[in-house]
Amino acid sequence: MTPQTDVHELPRVHDLLGVGIGPFNLSLAALCDGVPGLRALFLDAKPDFSWHPGLLLDGTTLQVPFLADLVTMADPTSPWSYLNYLREHDRMFPFFFSERFHIPRREYDHYCRWVAGRLSSCRFDARVTELAWDEGAEAFAVTYRSAAGASTRVLARHVVLGVGTQPVVPEPLLPLLTGGSGHRGRVLHSADYRTHRVELAALDDVTVIGAGQSGAEVVLDLLRQQPVGDGAGAGVGGPYVRWLARTPAFAPMEYSKIGLEHFTPDYIRYFRGLPERRREQLVREQWQLYKGVSEETLAAIHDELYERTVGGTEPRTALHPGVAVVEAEPLPGGGGGYRLTCLHTERDERFEVRTSAIVSATGYAAVRPAFLEPLSKLVDWDGKSRYRIDADYRVTLAPHVSGGLYVQNAELHTHGVSAPDLTLGAWRAATILNAVAGRTVLRLPERAAWTTFGVPDTL
Asked: Is the pTM here over 0.85, yes or no?
Protein backbone atom coordinates (compact mmCIF):
# COMPACT_ATOMS: atom_id res chain seq x y z
CA MET A 1 0.00 0.00 0.00
CA THR A 2 1.29 3.48 -0.86
CA PRO A 3 2.12 5.49 2.29
CA GLN A 4 -0.08 8.54 2.80
CA THR A 5 0.19 11.49 5.16
CA ASP A 6 -2.55 13.38 7.00
CA VAL A 7 -5.01 10.53 6.62
CA HIS A 8 -7.76 10.26 9.21
CA GLU A 9 -8.67 6.67 10.01
CA LEU A 10 -12.16 5.58 11.03
CA PRO A 11 -11.84 3.13 13.92
CA ARG A 12 -14.52 0.57 13.19
CA VAL A 13 -14.48 -2.10 10.50
CA HIS A 14 -17.46 -2.03 8.15
CA ASP A 15 -19.02 -5.27 6.96
CA LEU A 16 -19.65 -3.82 3.51
CA LEU A 17 -18.38 -0.77 1.65
CA GLY A 18 -19.75 0.31 -1.71
CA VAL A 19 -17.69 2.44 -4.10
CA GLY A 20 -19.93 4.51 -6.35
CA ILE A 21 -23.56 5.44 -5.74
CA GLY A 22 -25.43 4.92 -8.97
CA PRO A 23 -28.77 3.09 -9.12
CA PHE A 24 -27.15 -0.34 -8.57
CA ASN A 25 -25.16 0.43 -5.43
CA LEU A 26 -27.99 2.66 -4.24
CA SER A 27 -30.22 -0.40 -4.55
CA LEU A 28 -27.79 -2.35 -2.37
CA ALA A 29 -27.65 0.50 0.16
CA ALA A 30 -31.46 0.56 0.36
CA LEU A 31 -31.68 -3.20 0.84
CA CYS A 32 -28.96 -3.08 3.54
CA ASP A 33 -30.87 -0.42 5.46
CA GLY A 34 -32.34 -1.93 8.60
CA VAL A 35 -30.53 -5.28 8.37
CA PRO A 36 -29.63 -6.04 12.02
CA GLY A 37 -25.91 -5.97 12.82
CA LEU A 38 -24.82 -5.00 9.29
CA ARG A 39 -22.44 -2.01 9.13
CA ALA A 40 -22.47 -0.56 5.61
CA LEU A 41 -20.97 2.53 4.02
CA PHE A 42 -21.31 3.81 0.43
CA LEU A 43 -19.02 6.44 -1.10
CA ASP A 44 -19.27 8.60 -4.21
CA ALA A 45 -17.11 11.42 -5.54
CA LYS A 46 -20.04 13.52 -6.75
CA PRO A 47 -21.53 16.20 -4.46
CA ASP A 48 -24.92 14.47 -4.65
CA PHE A 49 -26.76 11.78 -6.58
CA SER A 50 -27.16 12.24 -10.33
CA TRP A 51 -28.19 9.79 -13.04
CA HIS A 52 -27.35 10.50 -16.70
CA PRO A 53 -28.11 14.24 -16.35
CA GLY A 54 -27.20 14.83 -19.99
CA LEU A 55 -30.13 12.69 -21.13
CA LEU A 56 -32.88 13.85 -18.75
CA LEU A 57 -34.93 15.23 -21.63
CA ASP A 58 -38.58 16.19 -21.37
CA GLY A 59 -40.87 13.35 -22.35
CA THR A 60 -38.31 10.55 -21.96
CA THR A 61 -39.22 7.52 -19.87
CA LEU A 62 -37.50 4.51 -18.38
CA GLN A 63 -37.43 1.47 -20.65
CA VAL A 64 -38.37 -0.79 -17.75
CA PRO A 65 -41.58 -0.78 -15.65
CA PHE A 66 -41.70 1.17 -12.40
CA LEU A 67 -41.55 -2.11 -10.44
CA ALA A 68 -37.88 -2.28 -11.46
CA ASP A 69 -37.11 0.37 -8.87
CA LEU A 70 -34.33 0.11 -6.31
CA VAL A 71 -35.94 -2.54 -4.11
CA THR A 72 -39.32 -3.91 -5.17
CA MET A 73 -38.19 -6.94 -7.19
CA ALA A 74 -36.31 -8.17 -4.10
CA ASP A 75 -38.27 -6.62 -1.22
CA PRO A 76 -41.64 -5.03 -2.06
CA THR A 77 -42.16 -4.22 1.65
CA SER A 78 -39.17 -1.85 1.72
CA PRO A 79 -39.83 1.80 2.63
CA TRP A 80 -37.53 2.75 -0.27
CA SER A 81 -39.89 1.59 -3.02
CA TYR A 82 -41.06 3.87 -5.81
CA LEU A 83 -44.65 3.49 -4.60
CA ASN A 84 -43.67 4.74 -1.14
CA TYR A 85 -41.83 7.62 -2.79
CA LEU A 86 -45.10 8.55 -4.52
CA ARG A 87 -46.94 8.34 -1.20
CA GLU A 88 -44.36 10.53 0.54
CA HIS A 89 -44.74 13.13 -2.21
CA ASP A 90 -48.56 12.95 -2.34
CA ARG A 91 -48.46 11.71 -5.92
CA MET A 92 -50.19 8.36 -5.50
CA PHE A 93 -53.52 9.45 -6.95
CA PRO A 94 -52.02 11.38 -9.90
CA PHE A 95 -49.84 8.35 -10.67
CA PHE A 96 -52.82 6.02 -10.45
CA PHE A 97 -54.89 8.13 -12.83
CA SER A 98 -52.00 8.55 -15.27
CA GLU A 99 -51.99 4.74 -15.75
CA ARG A 100 -48.23 4.77 -16.31
CA PHE A 101 -46.17 1.59 -16.40
CA HIS A 102 -43.02 3.34 -17.64
CA ILE A 103 -42.29 6.41 -15.55
CA PRO A 104 -40.63 9.69 -16.60
CA ARG A 105 -36.86 9.48 -16.49
CA ARG A 106 -36.71 12.78 -14.60
CA GLU A 107 -38.94 11.33 -11.88
CA TYR A 108 -36.78 8.21 -11.58
CA ASP A 109 -33.79 10.51 -11.02
CA HIS A 110 -35.75 12.45 -8.38
CA TYR A 111 -36.81 9.19 -6.71
CA CYS A 112 -33.18 8.03 -6.49
CA ARG A 113 -32.17 11.43 -5.08
CA TRP A 114 -34.88 11.06 -2.44
CA VAL A 115 -33.53 7.66 -1.37
CA ALA A 116 -29.85 8.68 -1.46
CA GLY A 117 -30.53 11.80 0.58
CA ARG A 118 -32.20 9.83 3.37
CA LEU A 119 -29.91 6.83 3.73
CA SER A 120 -27.33 7.49 6.43
CA SER A 121 -24.97 4.96 4.81
CA CYS A 122 -24.55 7.10 1.67
CA ARG A 123 -21.71 9.62 1.73
CA PHE A 124 -21.08 11.96 -1.18
CA ASP A 125 -18.09 14.22 -1.83
CA ALA A 126 -15.93 11.18 -1.09
CA ARG A 127 -13.60 10.24 -3.96
CA VAL A 128 -11.98 6.85 -3.43
CA THR A 129 -8.27 7.12 -4.19
CA GLU A 130 -6.99 3.70 -3.14
CA LEU A 131 -8.27 0.20 -2.48
CA ALA A 132 -5.84 -2.31 -0.97
CA TRP A 133 -5.84 -5.48 1.11
CA ASP A 134 -4.66 -5.03 4.71
CA GLU A 135 -3.14 -8.35 5.78
CA GLY A 136 -2.99 -7.48 9.46
CA ALA A 137 -6.61 -6.35 9.70
CA GLU A 138 -7.84 -9.03 7.28
CA ALA A 139 -9.92 -6.37 5.61
CA PHE A 140 -9.88 -4.05 2.62
CA ALA A 141 -8.36 -0.64 3.28
CA VAL A 142 -10.25 2.08 1.42
CA THR A 143 -8.87 5.61 1.27
CA TYR A 144 -11.10 8.44 0.11
CA ARG A 145 -10.67 12.18 -0.24
CA SER A 146 -13.14 15.05 0.06
CA ALA A 147 -13.27 18.01 -2.31
CA ALA A 148 -11.56 20.04 0.43
CA GLY A 149 -8.61 17.62 0.33
CA ALA A 150 -9.16 15.73 3.60
CA SER A 151 -8.27 12.03 3.37
CA THR A 152 -9.93 9.26 5.34
CA ARG A 153 -9.02 5.58 5.58
CA VAL A 154 -11.65 2.99 6.46
CA LEU A 155 -11.58 -0.81 6.71
CA ALA A 156 -14.23 -3.10 5.26
CA ARG A 157 -14.55 -6.87 5.13
CA HIS A 158 -16.30 -6.73 1.76
CA VAL A 159 -16.25 -4.13 -1.04
CA VAL A 160 -18.76 -3.71 -3.86
CA LEU A 161 -17.67 -1.78 -6.95
CA GLY A 162 -20.54 0.15 -8.48
CA VAL A 163 -18.46 2.75 -10.28
CA GLY A 164 -20.59 2.71 -13.39
CA THR A 165 -19.48 2.79 -16.99
CA GLN A 166 -17.73 5.35 -19.16
CA PRO A 167 -18.89 6.78 -22.52
CA VAL A 168 -17.51 5.05 -25.61
CA VAL A 169 -16.93 6.84 -28.92
CA PRO A 170 -15.73 5.50 -32.29
CA GLU A 171 -11.97 5.65 -32.63
CA PRO A 172 -12.05 8.17 -35.54
CA LEU A 173 -13.75 10.71 -33.25
CA LEU A 174 -11.25 10.46 -30.40
CA PRO A 175 -8.80 13.08 -31.77
CA LEU A 176 -11.67 15.55 -32.09
CA LEU A 177 -12.87 14.92 -28.53
CA THR A 178 -9.38 15.29 -27.08
CA GLY A 179 -8.15 17.98 -29.43
CA GLY A 180 -8.90 20.99 -27.24
CA SER A 181 -11.73 23.41 -26.59
CA GLY A 182 -12.22 24.26 -30.27
CA HIS A 183 -14.52 21.26 -30.71
CA ARG A 184 -16.33 21.53 -27.37
CA GLY A 185 -20.06 21.44 -27.85
CA ARG A 186 -19.64 20.45 -31.50
CA VAL A 187 -18.24 16.93 -31.04
CA LEU A 188 -19.64 15.22 -27.97
CA HIS A 189 -21.01 12.03 -26.49
CA SER A 190 -24.76 11.85 -25.97
CA ALA A 191 -24.07 11.78 -22.21
CA ASP A 192 -23.42 15.55 -22.56
CA TYR A 193 -26.25 16.28 -24.99
CA ARG A 194 -28.54 18.20 -22.63
CA THR A 195 -25.70 20.57 -21.74
CA HIS A 196 -25.24 21.57 -25.39
CA ARG A 197 -28.71 21.04 -26.88
CA VAL A 198 -29.54 24.76 -27.26
CA GLU A 199 -26.29 25.38 -29.15
CA LEU A 200 -26.81 22.30 -31.32
CA ALA A 201 -30.38 23.30 -32.15
CA ALA A 202 -29.08 26.58 -33.61
CA LEU A 203 -26.70 24.89 -36.07
CA ASP A 204 -27.35 24.11 -39.74
CA ASP A 205 -26.55 20.41 -39.63
CA VAL A 206 -26.12 17.83 -36.84
CA THR A 207 -25.07 14.20 -37.31
CA VAL A 208 -26.05 11.64 -34.67
CA ILE A 209 -24.14 8.34 -34.58
CA GLY A 210 -25.63 5.28 -32.91
CA ALA A 211 -28.87 3.31 -33.26
CA GLY A 212 -29.69 2.80 -29.58
CA GLN A 213 -32.22 4.51 -27.36
CA SER A 214 -29.98 7.51 -26.62
CA GLY A 215 -29.33 8.14 -30.30
CA ALA A 216 -33.03 7.93 -31.08
CA GLU A 217 -33.91 10.34 -28.29
CA VAL A 218 -31.33 12.87 -29.49
CA VAL A 219 -32.64 12.58 -33.06
CA LEU A 220 -36.21 13.05 -31.86
CA ASP A 221 -35.31 16.07 -29.76
CA LEU A 222 -33.46 17.71 -32.66
CA LEU A 223 -36.33 16.99 -35.04
CA ARG A 224 -38.68 18.80 -32.69
CA GLN A 225 -36.52 21.91 -33.07
CA GLN A 226 -37.62 22.02 -36.72
CA PRO A 227 -40.91 23.94 -36.97
CA VAL A 228 -43.73 22.35 -38.94
CA GLY A 229 -44.24 23.99 -42.33
CA ASP A 230 -47.57 25.17 -43.73
CA GLY A 231 -47.58 22.63 -46.56
CA ALA A 232 -46.13 25.10 -49.04
CA GLY A 233 -42.53 24.70 -47.94
CA ALA A 234 -40.25 23.73 -45.11
CA GLY A 235 -40.44 25.62 -41.85
CA VAL A 236 -37.47 27.78 -40.94
CA GLY A 237 -35.17 26.86 -38.09
CA GLY A 238 -33.74 23.82 -36.46
CA PRO A 239 -30.83 21.79 -37.84
CA TYR A 240 -30.79 19.27 -40.64
CA VAL A 241 -30.67 15.97 -38.73
CA ARG A 242 -28.66 13.02 -39.98
CA TRP A 243 -28.77 9.65 -38.20
CA LEU A 244 -26.01 7.10 -38.86
CA ALA A 245 -25.77 3.60 -37.39
CA ARG A 246 -23.65 0.49 -37.87
CA THR A 247 -26.62 -1.79 -37.23
CA PRO A 248 -28.45 -3.07 -40.32
CA ALA A 249 -31.66 -1.34 -39.23
CA PHE A 250 -33.09 1.15 -36.75
CA ALA A 251 -34.65 -1.71 -34.88
CA PRO A 252 -36.99 -1.85 -31.89
CA MET A 253 -35.83 -3.31 -28.63
CA GLU A 254 -37.09 -6.83 -27.92
CA TYR A 255 -40.06 -6.33 -25.63
CA SER A 256 -42.19 -9.43 -25.98
CA LYS A 257 -43.26 -11.12 -22.76
CA ILE A 258 -41.36 -14.32 -23.52
CA GLY A 259 -38.38 -12.47 -24.99
CA LEU A 260 -37.99 -10.50 -21.76
CA GLU A 261 -37.26 -13.76 -19.94
CA HIS A 262 -33.65 -13.20 -21.02
CA PHE A 263 -33.66 -10.74 -18.11
CA THR A 264 -34.23 -13.36 -15.43
CA PRO A 265 -31.93 -15.25 -13.04
CA ASP A 266 -32.78 -18.38 -15.04
CA TYR A 267 -31.10 -17.04 -18.16
CA ILE A 268 -28.11 -15.78 -16.19
CA ARG A 269 -27.54 -19.30 -14.82
CA TYR A 270 -27.77 -20.73 -18.34
CA PHE A 271 -25.49 -18.08 -19.83
CA ARG A 272 -22.83 -18.61 -17.16
CA GLY A 273 -22.61 -22.28 -18.09
CA LEU A 274 -21.70 -21.58 -21.72
CA PRO A 275 -18.12 -21.56 -23.04
CA GLU A 276 -16.50 -18.11 -23.07
CA ARG A 277 -16.38 -17.90 -26.88
CA ARG A 278 -20.10 -18.65 -27.16
CA ARG A 279 -20.94 -16.11 -24.44
CA GLU A 280 -19.12 -13.37 -26.32
CA GLN A 281 -20.82 -14.33 -29.56
CA LEU A 282 -24.24 -14.21 -27.91
CA VAL A 283 -23.66 -10.74 -26.45
CA ARG A 284 -22.96 -9.46 -29.98
CA GLU A 285 -25.94 -11.27 -31.48
CA GLN A 286 -28.39 -10.15 -28.79
CA TRP A 287 -27.94 -6.43 -29.38
CA GLN A 288 -31.68 -5.90 -29.80
CA LEU A 289 -32.23 -7.12 -26.26
CA TYR A 290 -30.35 -4.18 -24.77
CA LYS A 291 -29.30 -1.81 -27.56
CA GLY A 292 -32.50 -1.42 -29.56
CA VAL A 293 -34.93 1.51 -29.46
CA SER A 294 -38.34 1.52 -27.81
CA GLU A 295 -41.21 1.19 -30.29
CA GLU A 296 -42.71 4.39 -28.86
CA THR A 297 -39.60 6.43 -29.68
CA LEU A 298 -39.35 5.04 -33.21
CA ALA A 299 -43.04 5.79 -33.73
CA ALA A 300 -42.57 9.35 -32.45
CA ILE A 301 -39.70 9.92 -34.91
CA HIS A 302 -41.86 8.64 -37.76
CA ASP A 303 -44.74 10.89 -36.69
CA GLU A 304 -42.47 13.95 -36.62
CA LEU A 305 -41.20 13.16 -40.12
CA TYR A 306 -44.72 12.53 -41.39
CA GLU A 307 -46.00 15.87 -40.14
CA ARG A 308 -43.03 17.76 -41.55
CA THR A 309 -43.58 16.38 -45.06
CA VAL A 310 -47.23 17.37 -45.46
CA GLY A 311 -47.80 18.92 -48.88
CA GLY A 312 -44.72 17.36 -50.42
CA THR A 313 -42.15 19.22 -48.31
CA GLU A 314 -38.77 17.53 -48.40
CA PRO A 315 -37.69 16.24 -45.00
CA ARG A 316 -34.64 17.90 -43.47
CA THR A 317 -33.59 14.53 -42.14
CA ALA A 318 -31.66 11.49 -43.37
CA LEU A 319 -31.60 8.04 -41.77
CA HIS A 320 -28.70 5.77 -42.72
CA PRO A 321 -28.41 2.28 -41.16
CA GLY A 322 -25.56 -0.08 -41.98
CA VAL A 323 -23.02 2.74 -41.94
CA ALA A 324 -19.70 2.91 -40.07
CA VAL A 325 -17.67 6.10 -39.59
CA VAL A 326 -14.07 5.30 -40.55
CA GLU A 327 -12.49 8.78 -40.61
CA ALA A 328 -13.32 12.18 -39.11
CA GLU A 329 -11.56 15.51 -39.49
CA PRO A 330 -12.28 19.25 -39.32
CA LEU A 331 -13.11 20.91 -42.60
CA PRO A 332 -10.20 22.93 -44.01
CA GLY A 333 -10.19 26.69 -43.76
CA GLY A 334 -11.00 27.05 -40.08
CA GLY A 335 -14.65 27.90 -40.72
CA GLY A 336 -15.97 25.10 -38.56
CA GLY A 337 -17.64 21.87 -39.45
CA TYR A 338 -16.42 18.33 -40.02
CA ARG A 339 -15.93 15.80 -42.78
CA LEU A 340 -16.85 12.21 -42.03
CA THR A 341 -15.72 9.36 -44.24
CA CYS A 342 -18.33 6.63 -43.97
CA LEU A 343 -18.46 3.00 -45.07
CA HIS A 344 -21.70 1.38 -46.14
CA THR A 345 -21.07 -2.05 -44.63
CA GLU A 346 -23.35 -4.07 -46.91
CA ARG A 347 -22.28 -2.45 -50.20
CA ASP A 348 -18.68 -1.98 -49.07
CA GLU A 349 -18.69 1.53 -50.52
CA ARG A 350 -17.38 4.75 -49.02
CA PHE A 351 -19.00 8.17 -49.06
CA GLU A 352 -18.45 11.52 -47.34
CA VAL A 353 -20.65 13.55 -45.03
CA ARG A 354 -20.17 17.20 -44.10
CA THR A 355 -21.74 18.35 -40.88
CA SER A 356 -21.64 21.18 -38.35
CA ALA A 357 -21.65 18.95 -35.26
CA ILE A 358 -21.44 15.30 -34.22
CA VAL A 359 -23.26 13.59 -31.34
CA SER A 360 -21.86 10.15 -30.63
CA ALA A 361 -24.62 8.06 -29.03
CA THR A 362 -22.40 4.99 -29.01
CA GLY A 363 -22.94 3.59 -25.55
CA TYR A 364 -20.87 2.91 -22.48
CA ALA A 365 -18.37 0.33 -21.27
CA ALA A 366 -17.00 -0.83 -17.94
CA VAL A 367 -13.50 0.39 -17.09
CA ARG A 368 -10.96 -0.61 -14.45
CA PRO A 369 -10.81 2.23 -11.89
CA ALA A 370 -7.36 3.65 -11.10
CA PHE A 371 -7.87 3.24 -7.36
CA LEU A 372 -7.89 -0.54 -7.87
CA GLU A 373 -4.20 -0.62 -8.84
CA PRO A 374 -2.86 -1.56 -5.36
CA LEU A 375 -5.15 -4.61 -5.44
CA SER A 376 -4.63 -5.55 -9.09
CA LYS A 377 -1.96 -8.19 -8.45
CA LEU A 378 -4.39 -10.05 -6.18
CA VAL A 379 -7.13 -10.17 -8.84
CA ASP A 380 -7.37 -13.28 -11.02
CA TRP A 381 -7.88 -11.49 -14.35
CA ASP A 382 -9.06 -13.48 -17.34
CA GLY A 383 -7.18 -13.63 -20.66
CA LYS A 384 -8.67 -10.26 -21.72
CA SER A 385 -7.87 -8.50 -18.42
CA ARG A 386 -11.47 -8.70 -17.23
CA TYR A 387 -12.77 -9.80 -13.85
CA ARG A 388 -13.52 -13.46 -13.30
CA ILE A 389 -16.88 -13.30 -11.53
CA ASP A 390 -18.80 -16.06 -9.78
CA ALA A 391 -22.56 -16.57 -9.50
CA ASP A 392 -22.75 -14.19 -6.50
CA TYR A 393 -20.95 -11.40 -8.43
CA ARG A 394 -17.78 -11.95 -6.43
CA VAL A 395 -14.46 -11.33 -8.17
CA THR A 396 -11.93 -14.15 -7.95
CA LEU A 397 -8.99 -12.99 -5.81
CA ALA A 398 -5.83 -14.61 -4.48
CA PRO A 399 -6.67 -17.49 -2.08
CA HIS A 400 -5.31 -15.74 1.02
CA VAL A 401 -7.72 -12.78 0.63
CA SER A 402 -10.59 -13.63 2.94
CA GLY A 403 -12.70 -10.60 2.05
CA GLY A 404 -15.01 -10.39 -0.92
CA LEU A 405 -14.72 -7.96 -3.83
CA TYR A 406 -18.01 -7.73 -5.73
CA VAL A 407 -18.99 -5.85 -8.90
CA GLN A 408 -22.19 -4.41 -10.33
CA ASN A 409 -22.58 -3.74 -14.07
CA ALA A 410 -19.13 -5.03 -14.96
CA GLU A 411 -20.18 -8.60 -15.74
CA LEU A 412 -21.57 -8.47 -19.28
CA HIS A 413 -18.99 -11.07 -20.33
CA THR A 414 -19.90 -13.53 -17.55
CA HIS A 415 -23.59 -12.89 -16.83
CA GLY A 416 -25.00 -11.65 -20.14
CA VAL A 417 -27.11 -8.80 -21.43
CA SER A 418 -28.93 -8.12 -18.15
CA ALA A 419 -25.78 -6.59 -16.61
CA PRO A 420 -26.60 -2.92 -17.46
CA ASP A 421 -30.39 -3.34 -17.22
CA LEU A 422 -32.34 -1.96 -14.26
CA THR A 423 -34.71 -4.95 -14.29
CA LEU A 424 -32.40 -7.20 -12.28
CA GLY A 425 -30.76 -4.45 -10.22
CA ALA A 426 -32.57 -5.26 -6.99
CA TRP A 427 -32.19 -9.01 -7.50
CA ARG A 428 -28.43 -8.68 -8.07
CA ALA A 429 -28.09 -6.40 -5.03
CA ALA A 430 -29.99 -8.92 -2.90
CA THR A 431 -27.76 -11.72 -4.19
CA ILE A 432 -24.68 -9.76 -3.11
CA LEU A 433 -26.27 -8.89 0.24
CA ASN A 434 -27.01 -12.56 0.98
CA ALA A 435 -23.44 -13.51 0.03
CA VAL A 436 -21.90 -10.81 2.22
CA ALA A 437 -24.13 -11.66 5.18
CA GLY A 438 -23.50 -15.39 4.78
CA ARG A 439 -27.20 -16.08 5.16
CA THR A 440 -30.51 -15.50 3.41
CA VAL A 441 -31.39 -11.93 4.29
CA LEU A 442 -33.84 -11.75 1.38
CA ARG A 443 -35.42 -14.82 -0.14
CA LEU A 444 -34.99 -14.98 -3.91
CA PRO A 445 -37.04 -17.15 -6.31
CA GLU A 446 -35.68 -20.49 -7.49
CA ARG A 447 -37.36 -20.03 -10.88
CA ALA A 448 -38.46 -16.85 -12.63
CA ALA A 449 -38.97 -17.86 -16.29
CA TRP A 450 -41.28 -20.18 -18.19
CA THR A 451 -38.55 -20.73 -20.75
CA THR A 452 -36.10 -23.61 -20.41
CA PHE A 453 -32.89 -22.17 -21.83
CA GLY A 454 -30.72 -25.26 -21.61
CA VAL A 455 -31.22 -28.92 -22.49
CA PRO A 456 -34.24 -30.28 -20.58
CA ASP A 457 -33.74 -33.15 -18.12
CA THR A 458 -36.66 -35.07 -19.65
CA LEU A 459 -38.98 -34.68 -22.65
From this structure: yes
